[in-house]
Amino acid sequence: MIKPTLLILAAGLGSRYGGIKQMDKIGPSGESIIDYSIFDAIRAGFDKVVFVLNDRILEDFKAIYEPRLKNRIKTEYILQEISDVPNGTNYNPERKKPWGTGHAVLAARNHISEPFAVINADDFYGREAFSLISGYLSLLDNSEKSCAMIGYQMKNTLSDHGSVSRGICQISNGYLTDVVERTKISRKNGKIVYRAHNSDIALEDQSVVSMNFWGFSPVFFKQAEAEFRSFLNENAEKTEAEFYIPYVINKLVKTGEAPCKVLTSNNKWFGVTYKEDKPVTIEKINQLIHRGFYPENLWK
What we know:
Layout: E1 5-9, H1 33-43, E2 48-53, H2 58-69, E3 74-79, H3 101-106, E4 116-120, E5 123-124, H4 127-137, E6 147-153, E7 164-172, E8 175-188, E9 191-196, E10 199-203, E11 208-216, H5 219-235, H6 245-255, E12 260-264, E13 270-271, H7 277-290
Parallel strand pairs: 1-2, 1-4, 2-3, 6-12
Antiparallel strand pairs: 4-11, 5-13, 6-11, 7-8, 7-11, 8-9, 9-10
């Protein structure tokens, strides 16, 4: 049986966080959130991790994680670069940053040839989520077009210190029928809302949202590249346009090209979107250690 690979999107520069949150110390022995994700992934049966990084942190990142992960899980480190676009496409030379999460996944297309999961570097997903996605991927054929998503309840995914972005999902019979990326989501006057067109639009507490935890076969790279080509044809001149994973998924689901199974986790998300999130995250990690979910030193 082929063991799945974990793809970690860690190229973001953390403008809202005010620092390099990918490597920020959260655990009692200097662990970052990434360490806990990899620890959970190893327990769930993953045997390789691929990091998508930016060139500002590449060497520092490798210096930290190569010693920690040696002989525990195979590792690869790749860069997400603005210039990595399909042959025959163009973009505005004024653009200063890469194209978003969908583009970050494409950066790994020459490094992964087995079923794989995708996560953000700064989100703590919980042990249950890795077990769910590993179970799905272990049964996925390399040529299969279907995919999966770990879904969370909206109320379990907010920050107390600012707005967040989430993929709002519609589901039928356990499968995704629609996912739309919403930004500037927060709780106001006891209600969850997102900001659009200068108005606050309400969302249900029980709404299922994507936290960018996906499971794919290698076929997804070809599907995503085709969608990226179309995206660039429409948005090449824009300097801020983002090619999100939900953008690709939505196209595949609506055309019937790739059904997407929703695997629901009851865990509460936490992470470090904002600097003020850090003390809360540290406390939650300590609570999980006290309850026996993790050792005090993950890699001892």
